[in-house]
Structure formats: structure tokens, C-alpha cells
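Let us practice reading a record.
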Amino acid sequence: MKNIYSRRDFVRSGAVVATGFAAASDVFALAQELRSADEASPIHLGIASYTFRNFNRAQMIGFMKQLHVLALNAKDVKDHLLTDPQQEAAALADYAAAGVRLHAAGTIYFAKDEDADIRSKFEYCKRAGISVIVAGDPAPETLPRIEKFVKGYDIRFAIHNHGPEDKLWHSPLDVLKVVKSMDPRIGCCIDVGHTARAGTDVVQAIREAGPRLFNVHMKDLTSFQSKESQVAVGDGSMPVRKVFEALIAMKYKGFVDLEYEIHPDDPMPGVISSFAYMRGVLAGLGYASQG
């Protein structure tokens, strides 16, 4: 029998956020129960390192272990995954020792239509064994050059939409229009918050992206008209269950990475709450999360 967990059942009754870290063990125990469900989840949960942008690598690894989430979308921020080869190697050694798996890197910006600049970023990801580049604002005229590197390195290139403020890619639908005739390894990273703020139906965008969807950035908002209304996942209006159902229906193989952009100096209460809610939704669908 599938149990449906509400935010109130899952978080508020345990007073996780209200009591801070003291009650975190309740969430962890419940998360462990969810992980024992009979069916393995087709949804893979990860986290964007930008969530912990005010914390160093060692601190972030500690947070990830507390969350039971070892899948990382890494960014060149603090010392998370620096572009210098020696510093990058040190980070990779730390992640390997901690059991952290890097599946994507970004957001990486491609401001120059130059081979050397593009190659350096693909080399950065190749050294880390990363299979998805989450790209911010590459100009459409740069994409044919980038396409050559996608083919040469066999690394998928996921263009991240940034909502109404983005001069190029408001919505994933804008990305799809431009890349539809390009190599199938060029596609989207759908940021659900920015997508909703662009006036695009998130679930429909997922369906339209189909096999060109390589990464999902998860967040929640109380108002789809306000960037400043971000809250913990489950406390806003994002149709998380429908998002998961759409991803499952299309047999999505990528990660859903929490990108919690608020409270950068104290993100863990909201991050804990967000993962608890997402795991609760998956439990309601009959699955345990694969973190």
C-alpha cells in the first residue's frame, strides 16, 4: 500500500525547522525508514554545491553525510571544485575518500566563442569524470563551436534557464527551440523555479524536453511571480509530486539536484526539510529515494 506523506505529517509534526539541528535526528531516522521501501526509486536525488557556497569543501562533505546524500553537482565556488588542475585533483581525492559522487558541474559560463576557453572547461569536467556540464547563458551563435566539443568529449551539455531576467534562456522551451537540430547530447538543465517564474508550466516543459533533459534544479517558491519568495521544498507552490511523476513516466536517468539559494549562512534547516519532503513524496509514490 502506498502511503502519502504531507508536509505536516513529515516535517511540522516533528518540528524539524522550528527546533533546528536538535530534531534533525528525527528526520534522518524517518529518511532511513523510507530508504527501506520495497521498490528502489527511479528518482535520483542530489545537491548543487552552490547551496553551500559559504562553506568550504570539508564542511559541505559533512553536511552531505548528515543528509545521506552523496551525489553532487559541483561548482567552482569556495574550494568545492576549482578549475586549477592541482586544486581540482585535491578536491576529487577528498570526494572519493568521502564516497561523494560527482555527476554534474555548474553552472559554468561560456562567454567566449573561442576553442581554448571552451576546451579548458570540457577538460575541467573530463578530469573530474563528470558527464554533464550545466551551462549558463551560452550565446546561440557559440553553440555550433560547443557542439564540436560535445562530440569530441562525449559530455552532455545542459543549458540552464534563468527565468525572466535571462537575456537568452528564460524557459527550457527557449533552449529546445534552438538545440532541436543539434547533437542529442545538447539539451536542458531545467531549473523549476526559474521555469515557473518565466510563466512556463514546469511539468509540460519536462515532457517536452524528454531525452534532452539532463539535469533538474529543484527549489520551491510561494509566488511564481517573485524570485525572492523561495522557501524550503514543500512549503511553496511547486507541484513536486507531478514533477516526479513526469520524470518517472519518461524514465529520466539524470539527477534532481536541490539548489537551496536562501539562508546561505545557515542552509541546513531548509535543506533538511526539503529532502524530508522530497523523500516523503517518493514514499507516497511507493518508492524510497536514491540519494
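A brief commentary: The first helix runs from residue 7 to 10.
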